[in-house]
Design a protein that fits this description.
By secondary structure, this protein is of the alpha+beta class. The protein contains 4 helices and 9 strands; from the N terminus they run E-H-E-H-E-E-E-H-E-E-E-E-H. The chain folds into 2 domains: about 80 residues, 2,3-Dihydroxybiphenyl 1,2-Dioxygenase, domain 1 (Roll); about 80 residues, 2,3-Dihydroxybiphenyl 1,2-Dioxygenase, domain 1, CATH 3.10.180.10. A hairpin with an 8-residue loop joins strand 7 and strand 8.
Length: about 170
């Protein structure tokens, strides 16, 4: 008999393709405050290196080089930025109804200040700031875009607090 020892896996990182690696590192480090672990560097398609072979495995053979940078959030989640010389350099079509990654979410108790900063760096606010539980919990949220058109969400409180009953009482 086999025992199912399932447990929640932790989140390691997310990979985001951007049109300009230097601008993206600037935005995410200055606006989001994410730590730069490894600044922009080039990866070349070469079978002789571990990283080159790994990238051939992931991306196939239709590339020659790309740029990559690694950042980290305050809680250690990795942000892996990619910039390829070929490919579409426009924002992806926003279509949450199709299968695929819809958005990621960051948390900041000062949602208004973060949105102002996003706007000052060329990003967009996609909706008004909304409260999840008006007159009950002080939890707010808003969807925004970075300057490259990548949609993400902002919460003022943790995921667990936002969705658990009794997480906040006046």
């Amino acid at each position: 008999m086999t025992t199912n020892k399932n447990y929640p896996k932790s989140f390691s990182h997310i990979g985001i393709t951007v049109p300009n690696i230097k601008e993206a590192v600037k935005f995410y480090s200055e606006v989001m405050g994410w730590y730069i672990i490894m600044g922009p560097s080039k990866v070349k398609k070469e079978k002789e290196t571990a990283i080159g072979q790994m990238c051939i495995d992931v991306f196939g053979n239709d590339w020659t080089e790309f740029e990559i940078a690694h950042l980290a959030t305050s809680d250690g989640i990795g942000i892996e930025l990619f910039s390829f010389p070929n490919g579409i350099k426009e924002a992806p079509e926003f279509n949450p109804f199709n299968t695929g990654l819809f958005h990621f979410c960051v948390q900041d108790p000062n949602i208004e200040e973060l949105i102002d900063k996003i706007l000052s760096y060329g990003g967009k606010q996609r909706m008004p700031i909304r409260e999840y539980y008006p007159n009950d919990k002080p939890f707010k949220m808003c969807y925004v875009e970075d300057p490259f058109g990548i949609v993400f969400e902002i919460y003022t409180h943790s995921y667990e607090l936002t969705y658990s009953s009794g997480a906040y009482s006046k």
